[in-house]
């Protein structure tokens, strides 16, 4: 009797094909989509990427960071520095954002990992504040009031002229298309990387650590090394996203780039609503968030008040989020990471059993 | 002489931070809950004291006395109906709930009280000072510091001299065994959060009388409070006072060098302590 270990389910096979189809659709979308749709999708894709990264460190790694805005901000500022101080093209300068966030993450992890559990959260927040205050002293990049990307830098970004010609767009719209493609690449790349990580040995070790620290250590999981790995990788990716977002807005200030509301509260909201500790969660969450944002953001602080209350309600009544509710009813997992034994084509274990503990 | 003055002012400022921190420390010590909305609750309490002052025309201290029972009840209910439902082995739910509460409180206060800066009027007390020879210190900072010492002294008395304090310590050590002895941990937690809200009211009174406040300043107060707790060492209330003083002195010294460095200097002092003494200066709790 042949026995193999697999994570594949019928739903995941279908999801895989649908995902490929959606990516292909996303790539050709600028040919016929309106500019405002492209801008909305840019917003959705960047928030989705931030949410997936936060979900990786908090939902899988158990490290609840409230300091992710540090990486968004430092990434954005590094990109601005590359463009303004060293005359780089904005697109390659995005890579500087990733490098800067990675470098910041090393001391941040060094300090924050000394704090346990909940105190880790505020520790990361303090370090984000320190970074904001230090950056606000950087006078050549506008100090506390911020600065804009120079017009000559934004006017001839690599590829914009080609895109403008290809789709017959004006330069500003072509820049949006470029930013959108980069956001699509980052979102797909991030999700693919996270999914690959979770299916690897390291991913198994990571979820084991989250579920039971002591038991995982006792079977030889190196907790410290894994936490560093995940935290640094997520930080670097977050820096890339931050740089990309500010390439698109082309205007930066310390208060906006290091905003705890925009880059951490919204992100946490997305993950919590959608379902923490699952890859599907942030996808559902970002769509809900975008819908609420489009419908109600005119209400300003009432809207934010409602967001806060919704997050509390979800934690109280559906702690696994919307996707968690759906998955526990149906047993469907689009991106399964649970390992199952398969014997000669037959699946052992019932597909309807509770999967929550092992996802 | 200017440096002596700076350090004395910093020490007294530390009293305010210790008041911010005492409530946070109390709640963490008993139920391992870090309340991310703590700073916003302080601001909320300041607004409530202000409302009482404006409605009754009483002086701020009496107004705070009137507000305190209401805030105790609010804290009790918050714990009973919300926090108790998410406390458990997993630290994530309580963190996320308090973070959501923080966002909701900030924006709720923005709608109700507007973004305008407010101040609790304290009359002649605001500018009164005493000459201590080498330095002249304001009555208000002195009162703040004295209140911080009194609050911490009172908390220690409650902890080690009363039945309630015994229940606090027992639940903190082992909620399961405590409940075998007839203690209901859920109601102990609710009492603790209620008590923390009374301390929050005292902190809010001084916050509002000493400086302007508006709905957005809560998170920064949370961070100062948190730094004071960590520097002092988890579980040590007197350590929290020392932690507050260290943050206060670092801030005034930083501000003396360059006014833009005030907040940054406080954070750097915190990181320095974290670097050399990760468990704080006077650690007592094992976690």
Description:
- The complex is a heterodimer of chains A (359) and B (287).
- Chain A has 359 residues and is mainly alpha-helical.
- Chain A has helices at 10-28, 35-60, 69-84, 90-112, 117-135, 151-155, 160-167, 171-199, 201-211, 213-218, 223-249, 254-257, 260-274, 280-296, 301-317, 321-330; strands at residues 3-6, 147-148, 251-252, 340-343, 346-347.
- In chain A, helix 2 packs parallel to helix 8 and helix 8 runs antiparallel to helix 11.
- Chain A is globular.
- The two termini of chain A are 27 Å apart.
- Chain B is mainly alpha-helical and 287 residues long.
- Chain B has a single domain (2-276), classed as ABC transporter involved in vitamin B12 uptake, BtuC (Orthogonal Bundle), CATH 1.10.3470.
- Chain B contains eleven helices and two strands; from the N terminus they run H-H-H-H-E-E-H-H-H-H-H-H-H.
- Chain B starts with a helix and ends in an 11-residue tail after the last helix.
- Chains A and B meet through helix 5, helix 13 and helix 15 of A and helix 3, helix 4, helix 9 and helix 11 of B.
């Amino acid at each position: 009797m042949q026995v193999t270990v697999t994570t594949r389910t019928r739903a995941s096979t279908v999801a895989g094909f649908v995902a490929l189809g959606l990516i292909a659709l996303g790539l050709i979308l600028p040919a016929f989509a309106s500019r405002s749709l492209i801008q909305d999708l840019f917003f959705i894709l960047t928030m989705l990427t931030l949410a997936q990264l936060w979900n990786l460190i908090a939902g899988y790694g158990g490290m609840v960071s409230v300091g992710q805005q540090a990486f968004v901000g430092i990434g954005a500022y590094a990109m601005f520095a590359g463009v303004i101080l060293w005359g780089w093209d904005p697109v390659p300068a995005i890579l500087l954002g990733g490098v800067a966030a990675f470098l910041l993450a090393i001391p941040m992890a060094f300090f924050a990992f000394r704090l346990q559990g909940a105190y880790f959260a505020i520790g990361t927040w303090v370090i984000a504040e320190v970074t904001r205050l230090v950056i606000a002293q950087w006078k050549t990049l506008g100090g506390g009031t911020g600065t804009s990307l120079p017009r000559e830098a934004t006017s001839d970004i690599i590829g914009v002229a080609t895109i403008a010609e290809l789709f017959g767009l004006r330069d500003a719209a072509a820049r949006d298309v470029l930013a959108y493609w980069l956001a699509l690449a980052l979102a797909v790349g991030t999700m693919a990387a996270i999914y690959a990580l979770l299916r690897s040995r390291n991913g198994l070790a990571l979820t084991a650590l989250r579920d039971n620290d002591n038991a995982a250590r006792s079977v030889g999981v190196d907790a410290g090394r894994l936490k560093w790995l995940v935290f640094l990788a997520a930080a670097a990716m977050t820096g890339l996203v931050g740089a990309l977002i500010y390439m698109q807005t082309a205007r930066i200030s310390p208060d906006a780039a290091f905003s705890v509301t925009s880059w951490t509260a919204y992100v946490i909201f997305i993950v919590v609503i959608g379902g923490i500790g699952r890859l599907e969660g942030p996808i559902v969450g970002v769509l809900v968030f975008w819908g609420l944002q489009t419908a109600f953001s005119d209400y300003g602080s009432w809207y934010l008040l409602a967001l806060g209350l919704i997050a509390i309600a979800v934690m109280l009544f559906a702690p696994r989020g919307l996707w968690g509710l759906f998955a526990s009813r149906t047993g469907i997992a689009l991106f399964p990471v649970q390992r199952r034994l398969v014997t000669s084509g037959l699946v052992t274990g019932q597909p309807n059993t509770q999967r929550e503990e092992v996802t | 002489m200017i440096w002596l003055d700076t350090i004395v002012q910093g020490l007294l400022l530390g009293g305010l931070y210790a008041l911010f921190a005492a409530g946070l420390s109390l709640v963490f010590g008993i139920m391992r809950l870090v309340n991310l909305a703590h700073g916003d609750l302080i601001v909320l309490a300041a607004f409530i004291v202000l409302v009482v002052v404006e409605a009754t025309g009483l002086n701020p201290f009496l107004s705070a006395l009137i507000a305190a029972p209401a805030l105790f009840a609010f804290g009790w209910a918050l714990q009973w109906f919300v926090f108790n439902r998410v406390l458990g082995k997993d630290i994530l739910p309580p963190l996320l709930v308090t973070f959501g509460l923080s966002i909701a409180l900030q924006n709720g206060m923005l709608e109700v009280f507007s973004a305008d800066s407010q101040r609790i009027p304290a009359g002649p007390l605001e500018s009164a000072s005493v000459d201590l020879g080498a330095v002249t210190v304001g009555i208000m900072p002195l009162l703040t510091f004295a209140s911080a010492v009194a609050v911490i002294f009172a908390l220690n008395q409650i902890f080690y001299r009363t039945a309630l304090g015994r229940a606090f310590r027992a639940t903190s050590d082992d909620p399961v065994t405590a409940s075998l002895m007839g203690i209901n941990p859920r109601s102990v937690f609710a009492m603790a959060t209620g008590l923390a809200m009374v301390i929050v009211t005292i902190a809010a009174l001084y916050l509002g009388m000493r400086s302007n406040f508006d709905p957005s300043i809560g998170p920064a107060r949370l961070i100062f409070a948190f730094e004071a707790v960590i520097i002092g060492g988890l579980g040590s209330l007197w350590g929290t006072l020392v932690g507050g003083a260290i943050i206060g002195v670092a801030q005034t010294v930083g501000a003396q060098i360059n006014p833009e460095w005030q907040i940054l200097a406080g954070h750097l002092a915190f990181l320095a302590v974290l670097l050399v003494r990760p468990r704080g200066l006077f650690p007592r709790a094992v976690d």
